[in-house]
Amino acid sequence: xxxxxxxxxxxxxxxxxxxxxxxxxxxxxxxxxxxxxxxANSPTYIFTKPPIGYRMASPRTGKSTPPSPQASERPVx
Length: 77
Prior knowledge:
Elements: E1 4-5, H1 6-14, H2 23-36, E2 46-49, E3 53-56
Antiparallel strand pairs: 1-3, 2-3
């Protein structure tokens, strides 16, 4: 799946009135990871591309797209 930037997620989910505060988004991502049984330090489903945004694993393979996350990608909880 494609990478969604922090700005795209903030605008689509929380609307323009958010003023760029990333805390609600990070809290929501943390909750999703908990529901999926995902580990922030070793993600399976939600990958973080700092300082850009998030990417979900491919629904067909369960792997990140591209196939493996780069070393520069570290999970954010």
